[in-house]
Design goal:
The longest helix has 15 residues. It is built from seven helices and 14 strands. α1 runs parallel beside α3. The strands form three sheets. The chain has a six-stranded mixed beta sheet with strand order 5-4-3-2-1-14. Strands 6-7-8-9-12-13 form a six-stranded mixed beta sheet, covered by helices on one side. Strands 10-11 form a two-stranded antiparallel sheet. The relative contact order is 0.16. The structure holds ligand LYUYDEPV. The ligand NC(=O)CCC(=O)C(=O)O binds next to loops. The site of the ligand NC(=O)CCC(=O)C(=O)O has 11 residues, from loops. Belongs to the carbon-nitrogen hydrolase superfamily. NIT1/NIT2 family. This is Hydrolase. One of its GO terms (molecular function) is hydrolase activity.
Length: about 290
């Protein structure tokens, strides 16, 4: 059994001149044209616009709405895992609308190779310092990790979104939930792109996990995106990285590198402070 799998990050670029429907068409065609790959990752809010907060409420969709239906179709046609980035999710009228009653979330959706929704993640840390996300959206309440089989090899995927990168305790909880590959879609602006690059490496080093960060390109709603999508291995090395323009990045990842890194330099076994309820936390391991 091989421990290798191939991941492709699509750094989608867009401006204000492309409609939601046109962008969904374009990105689905792009995915359809990709050569052999096992997992495709899209950026945060690539369809609804990462900073287009003025139109979020009008364009919000349910998880079974058009955007995810289209992605589901292309995932099943290709037989790939597809992290659809995130959408502005609208709850159905008879569902819980969240503590502030807004009924809107920034929700990531992971589709399996049959096109079924395997996992959703509602962004926990909302970006905007009182504006944008915290003013308009509900905060997610739950971490999200799931088992996945990639090329007949079992692994565990953990999800986080953009600004979440600044909160290491979330990533530690994903590690305590046994995640080995951390998938991070984003709409991260250019002026802080060095934070994006640095924080991704930090989350990989401290959790000894693969980190796959897929950012946005272009300028929309007056905000220029930083690009620099990157794949970081469990030792913190940048395996591959894009520039600022739209493009794709394909990398072969070795899942065995997670266990090799964790056994070879067993820093996680020295944790003394429990911050989450993850099932795999065993502080006694290094007690001697
Ligand atoms: N969309 C975001 O979460 C942006 C985060 C960001 O710009 C930052 O953390 O800096």
């Amino acid at each position: 059994m091989t421990s290798l799998f191939r991941a492709t990050l699509l750094q989608v670029g867009y401006g204000d001149d492309e409609s939601l429907a046109d962008r969904v068409d374009r990105v689905c065609a792009w995915i359809g044209s990709l050569p052999d790959t096992d997992l495709v990752i899209l950026p945060e809010l690539w369809a609804h616009g990462g900073f287009a907060s003025g139109t979020w409420a009008a364009q919000a969709e349910s998880i079974d709405g058009t955007t995810i239906q289209r992605l589901s179709r292309v995932a099943s046609q290709k037989g790939i895992w597809l992290h659809g980035g995130s959408i502005i999710e609208r709850a159905a009228a008879d569902e819980d609308q969240g503590p502030d009653g807004r009924g809107l979330w920034n929700t990531s959706v992971l589709l399996d190779p049959a096109g079924a929704v395997q996992l959703t993640y509602r962004k926990i840390h909302r970006f905007g310092f009182g504006e944008g996300e915290p003013r308009l959206l509900e905060a997610g309440q739950e971490i999200a990790a799931t088992d996945a089989v990639l090329r007949s090899r079992h692994t565990r995927l953990g999800l986080a979104t953009c600004y979440d990168l600044r909160f290491p305790e979330l990533f530690r909880q994903l590690t305590e939930a046994s995640a080995e590959v951390l998938l991070v879609p984003a709409a991260w602006p250019l002026p802080r792109v060095e934070h994006w690059r640095l924080l991704g490496r930090a989350r990989a080093v401290e959790n000894q996990a693969w980190v796959l960060q897929c950012n946005t390109a272009g300028t929309h709603s007056g905000t220029t995106m930083g690009g620099h999508s990157q794949v970081i291995d469990p030792t913190g090395e940048v395996v591959a990285e894009l520039g600022v323009d739209e493009g794709s990045l394909t990398v072969d990842l070795d899942l065995d590198l997670v266990a090799q890194t964790r056994h070879g330099f067993p820093v996680l076994a020295d944790r003394r402070i429990r911050i989450g309820g993850g099932p795999s936390f065993t502080p006694e391991t290094n007690a001697g």
